[in-house]
Amino acid sequence: MNVNGNNEKPATAEDEYKKDPKIKKEDIEELRKWARMQPDLPFNITEKELICFYHSCYYNIEDAKSCMKNYYSIRSNSPEFFSKRDIDSDELRHINQAVYFSCFPVRDPKGNQIIFHKLKKFDAGSYVFDSGVKSLFMAFEGCTHQYGTVPGYALLFDMKGVGLFHLMRLSISSLRKMLVYQQEGMPIRLKTIHVMNTNSLISKIMFMMKPFMKKELIEMINFHTDMEPIYEIFTKDCLPSDYGGNLESCDVLHEQYLEHMRSLKTFFEKEEANLAVKNSDNPLSEKEELANSIDGLAIH
């Protein structure tokens, strides 16, 4: 089951080439050859994954290389976010009883995929920051696995119920890792962030986050105390019924998210296994190494 609650097959690399003529096969091949020569990168990076890096960096090969390096380095050093991603594990079952997540089935008017997050239980003792971040990143990966590239992503957060005790449970180290990964490693185009039902705590939260945020990310964030601007930006067609929208309720959308994550259990397991197998553990064959060396020669 995918994010829409149906069995539509995930996008393939060929789908991506047909969808976006700016994605050049020769550039993706150049990225593939470069990636295979990097000892610290995984051995089996798929063509679709290479396309996502390339697209997220607006078709700039050098930026895509940097993004890939950051992506795999951060993930290798952040097991609290990127390991044991079984939605039915005790850890994730606990956080998903306390928090709503959803990849909305209808995109915003600009074609951005909407990722939604809010507290389900207001008790701070039910909230574990690292587990929440893990579930959030799983939502992003579920979308890229299903849809491949999209024009952009919009994050929609509802602050209702967030209190001082939630703030006290934040880890500065984890917060920094999350923000660095969002800005330097995620193979998506994050376009906008909207925070609903903001309260006086938002200034304290931003004070903690700003040292790790670039100007571009800060400028993406929009704060709202009422729903009218949200209706204008997203329209009711892509909002849950809880907010006066035309989608299913947050409860139903959250259950669809859980089912989608459940269907990706094998995908997450394989990805974690592949992350552990570096190119340094799988040296290129002599023929492929020779071919890559020849391709790199320049005649002056």
Describe this structure in a few short sentences.
This protein has 300 residues and is an alpha/beta fold.
Structure report:
One of its GO terms (molecular function) is phosphatidylinositol bisphosphate binding. This is CRAL-TRIO domain-containing protein. Residues 88-251 form the CRAL-TRIO domain. The chain is of the alpha/beta class and 300 residues long. The protein folds into 2 domains: 10-77; 90-261, Phosphatidylinositol Transfer Protein Sec14p. 50% of the residues lie in helices and 9% in strands. The chain contains 15 helices and 5 strands. A 5-stranded mixed β-sheet has the order 1-2-3-4-5. The model is unreliable at 283-300 (pLDDT under 50).
Labels describing this entry:
Phosphatidylinositol Transfer Protein Sec14p; 300 residues; alpha/beta; five-stranded mixed sheet; 2 domains
Sequence-ordered SSE layout with sheet pairings:
Layout: H1 13-19, H2 25-36, H3 47-56, H4 61-76, H5 79-82, H6 90-98, E1 99-103, E2 113-119, H7 129-147, E3 153-158, H8 164-168, H9 172-184, E4 190-196, H10 202-209, H11 215-220, E5 221-223, H12 228-234, H13 250-263, H14 265-275, H15 286-295
Parallel strand pairs: 2-3, 3-4, 4-5
Antiparallel strand pairs: 1-2
Helix pairs in contact: 2-3, 3-4, 6-7
H/I helix tally:
15
* CATH architecture group name of the largest domain: 3-Layer(aba) Sandwich
What's the alpha carbon Rg, rounded to whole Å?
20 Å
User: How many structural domains?
Assistant: 2
What do the pLDDT scores average to?
90
Instruction: Note the overall shape.
Output: globular
- Uncertain residue segments: 283-300
**Residues in β-strands, percent:** 5-15%
Biggest sheet overview: 5 strands, mixed
CATH fold call of the largest domain: Phosphatidylinositol Transfer Protein Sec14p
- Helix and strand run: HHHHHHEEHEHHEHHEHHHH
Total beta strands? 5
